[in-house]
Amino acid sequence: MAIVFSFNMRQPATAGSGNNELQSRQVRLKGTNGAAVLLIHGLTGTPFEMGYLATYLNRKGYSTYCPRLAHHGEPIQMLKKALWQECYQSVKDALQEISAEHTHVFVSGLSMGALLALLLALDYPEKVAGVSCLSPTIFYDGWNMPWYRCFLPFAYLRPLRYFLYFKEEPPYGIKNEAIRAQVDKYYRKATLCDYTRVADFGYPYFPVALLYQLQRLVKYVSRRLPEVRSPVQIVQAQEDDMTSVKNATFIHERIASEKKEIVLLDNSYHVITADQERNKVAEKMNEFFDTIINGTRQEVFSRAG
Among 73, 85, 194, 206, which is 20 to 30 Å from 8 by CA? Predict the structure, then answer.
């Protein structure tokens, strides 16, 4: 990742002045089995990156919902001011709406979205039937992370963090060459204020201020992992370019869930929701959710007997 310094004073800094296409692009698909899956995109990402999973699970009977996190779709001047608590509020609101309409609600998230999913299970165990964490981000220790990441604590200092950005560089978390080429075509030419393809590929620049918020969320969730008792599935690519398998084992070893599993992928990078094995990811999620639903039904039947 290349470091960019910018005062970025020319952009509008008011909510509602961003990319209208991105702001309106949220997935809501009605299912048939009475259960729902809340899918949470990653930091600087879009609901679009969860689209394949949403469609697959909907065909299996699940209602699927992919909300847009707070300030995503706004100018980067607004995006970089987002607090992790605001992003969490976005998914809390979605959970409240979904849980009123479905017998079982599962939550799943990519990268930072995985941490928000775990937090929902911590705070609302009566509403969350199970969690699927996709490429969870506790440590930025993947094989493509720059050596100078150890100096990030200095970049987090105020006001420096509001003027620093990382420019995304290959492979962008994507191993699939065809998809990566599409992302690369846009990202290489994109400027800091370019929103032409953000709805499809997310922001080409990553504000350091958001990394600071992610680190605050990581610390908060990490301390509370021993409180997690909901069923948890963790799906991670062994070649993840951003976060190593250590992230999956860290969570798995600390949660108190009786039902928990790690699924490792052999042919993907970080964005496993859109990469080469996205179908396998969807299949494993469906299997995991189905076992929970069927187990609940068997338990109810047993008690009735």
Answer: 85
Could you give phi then psi for residue 130, rounded to 5 degrees? Answer: -175, 160
The full set of domain ranges for the chain reads 12-144+210-304
3-state secondary structure of 103: coil
Nearest to 131 by CA among 246, 279, 234, 280: 234
Strand order of the β-sheet with 260-265 is 27-29, 63-66, 35-40, 104-110, 130-134, 232-237, 260-265
**Spatial distance between the Cα atoms of 254 and 256, rounded to a whole number of angstroms:** 7
Q: For domain 12-144+210-304, give the fold.
A: Rossmann fold (3.40.50)
User: pLDDT 10s digit of each residue in the chain, 305 long?
Assistant: 566 667 654 554 444 444 444 444 578 999 999 999 999 999 999 999 999 999 999 999 999 999 999 999 888 888 999 999 999 999 999 999 999 999 999 999 999 999 999 999 999 999 999 999 999 999 999 999 876 666 677 677 788 888 899 888 999 999 999 999 999 999 999 988 887 888 888 999 999 999 999 999 999 999 999 999 999 999 999 999 999 999 999 999 999 999 999 999 999 999 999 999 999 999 999 999 999 999 865 444 433 43
What is the SS3 assignment for 78-91?
HHCCCCHHHHHHHH
Spatial distance between the Cα atoms of 236 and 188, rounded to a whole number of angstroms: 27
Q: Give the β-pairing of 35-40 and 63-66.
A: parallel
Residue from 168, 173, 139, 183 nearest 76 by CA: 168
- Contact, 107 vs 95, CB < 8 A? yes
Per-residue b/e over 183-194, b at no fewer than 16 CB within 10 Å?
bbebbeebebee
What is the three-class DSSP state of 195?
A: coil
| Residue 20 host element (H or E) | helix 20-24
CB burial of residue 5 (10 Å; 0-12, 13-18, 19+): exposed
